[in-house]
Design goal:
Pnp Oxidase, Chain A; seven-stranded antiparallel sheet; 1 helix
């Protein structure tokens, strides 16, 4: 059943796949995920604009970013999907597919192809090691509904 009322951010995850119709895997130990969309404009101000700037639409773009804890295995010792996997995609300059979604049937999700443009590990003294990722999107950004 679709989520009612305000979403709890904990329920929204960043998923990665190597194929648009492939299996999407949740980045392990995620702390946050962001989808940022933008549209450029083109100026059409002219002598009949009465001194006001006029614009029309232009290209759209987007990026996805997130932060997660650095780990190679979960508490039970099982391998997880994390920095090492993402580094492989970065190193190979692989096109990946991202999905921002909940696991709840009926909720909306957003998918797009992209490239990892930034991948960072932060390891402060006596604190949790964390990672961050930025993915610049290429092509159409689509939406759907979890079934």
């Amino acid at each position: 059943m679709a989520t009612n009322n305000i979403f709890n951010g904990t329920d929204i995850g960043l998923y990665i796949s190597t194929a648009s119709d492939g299996t999407y895997t949740l980045i392990a130990f995620s702390q946050d995920a962001s989808l940022s969309l933008a549209m450029d404009t083109r100026e059409i101000t002219n002598k009949t604009s009465s001194g006001y700037r006029e614009l029309l639409e232009s290209t759209r773009s987007g990026s996805v970013s997130g932060n997660f804890f650095y780990a190679e295995k979960d508490a039970s010792g099982s391998a997880i999907f994390g920095f090492d996997d993402l580094f492989g995609y970065f190193e190979n300059r692989s096109k990946i597919f991202v999905k921002i979604a909940t696991a709840e049937t009926g909720d909306s999700y957003y998918t797009a192809a992209g490239y990892i443009t930034a991948l960072e590990v932060s390891a402060p003294v006596e604190d949790n090691a964390t990672c961050s990722i930025t993915i610049e999107l290429t092509g159409a950004i689509t939406d759907g509904t979890n079934s």
